[in-house]
Amino acid sequence: MAGKYFNQWQIGDTIVHDIRRSVTETDNLLFSVMTHNPQPLHIDAEAAKASEFGQILVNGTFTFALMVGLSVGDTTLGTLVANLGYDKLIMPKPVFIGDTLRAETEVIGLKESKSRPDAGVVTFLHRCLNQRDEVVCSCERAALLKKAPADI
After folding, report:
1. Span 33-58, average pLDDT
2. What per-residue confidence (pLDDT) applies to 152?
3. What are the residue boundaries of the structural domains of the chain, listed by start?
4. pTM for this structure?
5. Are 147 and 119 in contact (CB under 8 A)?
6. What pLDDT was estimated at residue 1?
7. DSSP 29-69
8. Which SS3 state, helix, strand or coil, does residue 56 take?
9. Coil, strand, or helix at residue 108?
10. Who has greater pLDDT, 134 or 2?
11. Mean of the per-residue pLDDT values for the chain?
12. Which superfamily, per CATH, for 6-146?
C-alpha cells in the first residue's frame, strides 16, 4: 500500500509526485465526449484555431482529474475512506495538447474525526504544473483517511 494513514501525516509534508503525463489529443477528445462537453474550444480544431488561443484547449476537468489522479498513489491509496470535498479550484494557465503535466501535494490541514475515532481528515493542497513549471491547476482536497492499525 502506497498511501499514508491519517496519523502518518504532518502539516507541511510535501510530495513531488514522480508520475508525469503528456496530454494527447485522444485524452482530451475522449474525456470531453465521455462527459458530454461539446465546447468547441476542446473538440473543434477550426473553432479553436480562430480563438484567442489559436489551438485546442485541454478540457479543464480533465486537467483537474489528472492532477488528483497523479497524487493518489502517494497520498491516499489504500487508506482513503472518502473524499469529502474539493475547494478553491483554480486554473490560472491554459493546458494544450502535448503539454506534460506533473503534480505536487502539500498537507495544509489535519483534523481528528469526531464521529469516527479510527479516522481523520487530511486537507491536501494539490498543484499541477506544466513542462515550464507553470501552475495550470490547483485545489484543496479534504480526505477522510483511516488511522494506522496498532501493529504499524
Report:
1. 96
2. 65
3. 6-146
4. 0.93
5. yes
6. 52
7. HHHHHHTT---HHHH-HHHHHHSTTSSPBPPHHHHHHHHHH
8. coil
9. strand
10. 134
11. 96
12. Hotdog Thioesterase (3.10.129.10)
